[in-house]
Design a protein that fits this description.
- The protein has a single domain (26-496), classed as Glycosyltransferase (Alpha/alpha barrel).
- The chain contains 14 helices and 17 strands.
- The chain has helices at residues 26-30, 38-41, 48-60, 97-111, 124-139, 154-169, 172-186, 227-237, 240-256, 304-321, 324-342, 383-403, 406-427, 481-496, and strands at residues 70-76, 86-89, 189-190, 195-196, 202-205, 208-210, 217-220, 258-261, 272-275, 278-281, 288-292, 350-351, 359-360, 433-437, 443-447, 461-464, 475-480.
- The strands form seven sheets. Strands 2-1-17-16 form a four-stranded antiparallel β-sheet. Strands 7-10-11 form a three-stranded antiparallel β-sheet, with no helix packed on it.
- Helix 6 (154-169) packs antiparallel against helix 7 and helix 6 (154-169) runs parallel beside helix 8.
- It is globular, with a radius of gyration of 22 Å.
- The two termini are 41 Å apart.
Length: 500
């Protein structure tokens, strides 16, 4: 039985959906007369705490690890390593997210310095210089990863740091790495399946061992987010084959991974879609051989982060290609995600201390929308799923605005803001940090409460809780590097759009 980790809330049964069925921010809805400004709703998103935590991990993580061979991944919420980043090797699929967080903050420091909300004692130029230095240190070892042809995760590994290096600093080496990575990813495209192979094997589930490269062709829904690498590199290099492969892959997954749902949601007349996580094809024919899940609860359930990857991936695919079928998919995926948040059991909500009638937690997704709730006092979540989905909804909102469909654009933007606001209310680590100028004039990071340290920004993430997964692969209730990356990137997206 899982238990809550120091959540300062008591369970509530209050609803968080308006009588019209429209999504509303939980605090705004449940506190009569309260009308929070956007900056107040997202105050934790633009705080010195975020900059301080990333800077400390970036600096201290280079001790005895320079150049880096291991990269931050998870922060346990309990046990002997509680509060401390646990690392994975440089060739692990998550290695690109931490340097991506650094560069997203560096973009803020250069273009939107007022958004950092740092104390007056900190010189902006010193902070910019230090972020650029550690960003370079953490991203340089990723260049060589671009040559790999044994992974589909090159978009996750390369784009978060190399794209800003190219766009902000005109770093031609970063652009070359992006193009090299895209060509490596393209090498995994199979014209018979009309898709890019995700994994070469699957061997960590009880009763499932898929290991033949000739008899099996594994594709996961997460792969949709790596199509951005192909589209971007095609635009930068005029290699049309890269974009063509991304379009064909996206079309294949429309049929193989998206499931039509009969449910409806107020205010939307289109089709709603859930997602399968993993599909195995016959390589010779492209016919589906079997459907599985590697990280969700069951092959017929909806793993919440898989649904989030699909929202973001299809929103990006439409933004690049303009194909209406991808827009329909992104909208239908987002609507189903939001419907499942709205229809989650009442035990997902917690009272907000000191705010009469205020609740939070409804829009922090359960780790799998269909998994049984083992502990109603503290249902298992995946905060990263909500944050990824919120990024996808901002991209979707931007695309709809470009079409002139401002009503739908506002619908998804508000939903994204609500999800992130609720994540900040519910999952933001109470252990905060701040920056100070040391005796030698260098920046240092201190804990707001001495001895109270938690390295990541958000808690309550779940990498995998598949009951068939080997125990070593199951991790839950922790901070997670890509949850933090997408949280930071969400804030930077709003700045780019002039919303904040």
């Amino acid at each position: 039985m899982k238990t809550c980790d120091d959540l300062p809330f008591a369970s509530s049964g209050n609803g968080a959906i308006s009588s019209s069925g429209n999504l509303m921010p939980a605090r705004v809805l449940n506190v009569p007369g309260q009308n929070l400004r956007l900056q107040d709703r997202l105050v934790g998103l633009y705080s010195e705490n975020i900059v301080a935590k990333i800077l400390r991990t970036a600096t201290q993580g280079l001790f005895h690890n320079d150049p880096p061979t291991s990269y931050p991944e998870t922060v346990p919420q309990s046990g002997p390593s509680e509060g401390q980043y646990q690392s994975r090797e440089v060739d692990f699929w998550t290695s690109g997210f931490f340097p991506g967080s650094i560069y997203s903050l560096l973009e803020r420091a250069i273009k939107y310095p007022q958004s950092l909300n740092i104390n007056e004692a900190i010189e902006l130029s010193s902070l910019q210089q230090q972020l650029q230095q550690v960003g370079s240190s953490w991203s340089e070892p990723l260049h060589i990863q671009a040559r790999r042809t044994d992974s589909h995760d090159l978009g996750f590994m390369i784009m978060p740091s190399m794209r800003p290096r190219w766009e902000m600093f005109h770093d031609t080496g970063a652009l070359e790495t992006i193009i090299t990575a895209a060509e490596s990813l393209y090498s995994r495209f199979d014209s018979r399946v009309q898709a890019i192979r995700s994994w070469d094997d699957l061997d960590w589930l009880t009763g499932v061992n898929i290991s033949s490269m000739t008899d099996d062709f594994l594709v996961i829904i997460d792969s949709m987010c790596n199509m951005d690498l192909l589209f971007y590199a095609a635009a930068q290099s005029s290699n049309k084959n890269l974009a063509d492969a991304a379009i064909k892959h996206s079309r294949t997954l429309l049929k193989s991974h998206l499931r039509v749902e009969t449910a409806t949601r107020v205010g939307y007349s289109g089709t709603l879609y859930s997602t399968a996580h993993l599909v195995n094809f016959f390589p010779e024919t492209g016919i589906i051989k079997g459907t599985h899940t590697a990280q969700g609860y069951d092959k017929v359930s909806t793993w919440s982060r898989g649904q989030a990857w699909a929202i973001l991936g299809y929103a990006q695919a439409y933004q690049w290609s303009g194909h209406a079928e991808f827009l329909d998919a992104a909208c239908g995926l987002a609507e189903y995600f939001l419907l499942r948040l709205e229809n989650a059991p009442e035990c997902v909500e917690f009272k907000v201390p000191g705010v009469e009638g205020g609740v939070c937690g409804r829009y922090v997704p359960l780790w799998d929308f269909d998994a049984p709730i083992e502990n109603p006092q503290c249902p298992l979540r995946d905060s990263s799923a909500g944050i990824v989905a919120a990024n996808g909804m901002v991209v979707l909102s931007q695309a709809l605005n470009g079409q002139g469909n401002h009503i739908s654009a506002a619908r998804y933007l508000e939903a994204a803001l609500m999800i992130v606001q609720d994540a900040l209310d519910f999952a933001l680590a109470k252990e905060k940090s701040y920056m100070a100028v040391g005796m030698d004039g260098a920046l240092e990071v201190l804990d707001s409460e001495p001895g109270e340290r938690f390295d990541s920004i958000l808690k309550n993430a779940t990498v995998c809780n598949n009951p068939a997964s080997f125990e070593k692969s199951r991790t839950w209730d922790h901070g997670l590097v890509y949850g933090d990356y997408y949280l930071i990137e969400f804030g930077t997206r709003l700045l780019r759009l002039g919303i904040i």
